[in-house]
Amino acid sequence: MLRFRFSSGLILGLLLGVPGGVLLGLLALPQHTDQTPATSAHIQELTRRLETAEEDKRRMDRQLEQFQQLTVQMTASFNSLEQRFRALEEKERLHGSHTVVSAASPPAATPRVAVPTPVAPPPTAEETAPEAASEPAAPPSEPEPQ
């Protein structure tokens, strides 16, 4: 009798335990479905975006270097122009004339540009009228008694 109880319990345990274990395994453990095509497409899209972003970064770095070189050149050109204008002003101040003095030849890197000198317009009648009014008027002279 003892044998019958043991064997029937073993068979009953196997019949209930194996399907229960399989069911528990399917529910508890993550399922491995065939998501590789969707995942690989997503990975390829992200890789393409990353490569595009890296290319944009390299292009922007090159443009930044070009702009930095351009600013250095422009700074040098402006400094050269400032020195030339100061020299012109000094020559004009020393000569005391308002004539246009030709500047020294510019460096080969900068193009030669003629810069007109501003000329003051002649004074108008309205501008000269206040000057006449500001002069003190001489008092009328009285004839001296004889």
Quaternary structure: single chain
The percent range for helix content is 55-70%
- What does the largest sheet look like? none
Estimated radius of gyration? 49 Å
Output the structural class: mainly alpha
Strand percentage lies at under 5%
Say how many strands there are. 0
Termini distance?
178 Å
Describe the overall structure.
The chain is an all-alpha fold and 146 residues long. It is built from three helices and no strands. The longest helix is centred in the middle third of the chain and has 60 residues, at 36-95. The radius of gyration is 49 Å and the shape is rod-shaped. The model has no long low-confidence stretch (mean pLDDT 77).
List keywords for this structure.
146 residues, mainly alpha, 66% helix
Question: Which helices and strands appear, and what pairs or packs with what?
Answer:
Blueprint: H1 2-28, H2 36-95, H3 125-134
Summarize the model shown.
The protein is mostly helical and 146 residues long.
